[in-house]
Amino acid sequence: MNLIYKLLVITLATLLSSSFSNAQAVNNVWEGAYTEEQAMNGENLYQEHCSACHGSQMQGIEEAPTLKQGAFIYNWDDLGVDILFQRIRTTMPLDDPRGVSRKIKADILAYLMSENNFPAGKIKLPYQNSRLKRIKWNAQKPADD
Ligand code: HEC
Questions:
Q1: pLDDT the model gives residue 35
Q2: Count of domains in the chain?
Q3: What residue numbers bound the domain in which 86 lies?
Q4: 30 lines ligand 1 (CB under 6 A)
Q5: Does the pLDDT of residue 82 top 70, yes or no?
Q6: CB of 23 within 8 A of CB of 132?
Q7: Which of 12, 53, 71, 114 has the most CB atoms around it within 10 Å of its CB?
Q8: Quick check: is 143 in a domain?
Q9: Which protein residue's CA is at the shortest distance from atom 10 of ligand 1?
Q10: In whole angstroms, what is the distance from residue 91 CA to residue 105 CA?
Q11: Measured from the CB, is residue 68 less than 6 Å from ligand 1?
Q12: pLDDT digits (tens, 9 = 90+) for 21-55
């Protein structure tokens, strides 16, 4: 009985620590905040929902700005990814922000990250603010500690 109890505690502790380290693994967009597959899916969704205004290469058209490099990346510098996600969630597509689900927007944001040369990783970009907020959007790669 005692042994079974001990084994149970060890198993639980291992499970907990591994799920914990998974959840905390990605601190910023340079550490692989989305998966390659998600970004590929996001590309199609971007073309469907966003490209009419922002352009098929994210180059920007008239008032709709580019979503690539330079000014765009620095607009969101040092903020949690939840802030950019909220911006997209509440205001984009400009003509119908409620017409596109959170999940779809997370995949589109994954594509946007890949187009801005942030690396892919093993964990999908989440669509919950509580999780997105732990990932920092750093315009430049933070120095290693
Ligand atoms: C009907 C046209 C239109 C569509 C469709 C559209 N956008 Fe936009 N978007 C704009 C315009 C215009 C702006 C700038 C003015 C504003 O913010 O309202 C903008 C601004 C943005 C910004 C802020 C850019 C910055 O410099 O920080 C983001 C991010 C964005 N759009 C993402 C998206 C995404 C993702 C989609 C698809 C889900 C999308 N937009 C679809 C017109 C559009």
A1: 98
A2: 1
A3: 27-137
A4: no
A5: yes
A6: no
A7: 114
A8: no
A9: 64
A10: 12
A11: no
A12: 555 579 999 999 999 999 999 999 999 999 999 99
The 10s digit of each residue's pLDDT in 102-136 is 999 999 999 999 999 999 999 999 999 999 999 99
Which pLDDT tens digit goes with each residue over 92-101? 999 999 999 9
pLDDT at site 1: 66
98 in a structural domain: yes
Joined tokens for residue 40: 């590929």
CATH number at residue 127: 1.10.760.10
pLDDT at 5: 83
User: Does the beta carbon of 50 sit less than 6 angstroms from any atom of ligand 1?
Assistant: yes
N residues, the chain: 145
d(CA 105, CA 95): 15
C-alpha 79: how far from its chain's center?
Answer: 12
pTM: 0.87
What distance in angstroms lies between residue 66's CA and the mean position of ligand 1's atoms?
9
β-partners of residue 136 are 28, 80
Domain assignment of residue 144, yes or no: no
Distance 63 CA to ligand 1 centre (A): 9
CA-to-CA dists, residue 125 to 36, 71, 109, angstroms: 10, 23, 8
For residue 103 and ligand 1, the question of a CB distance below 6 A is answered with no
Asked if residue 4 belongs to a domain, the reply is no
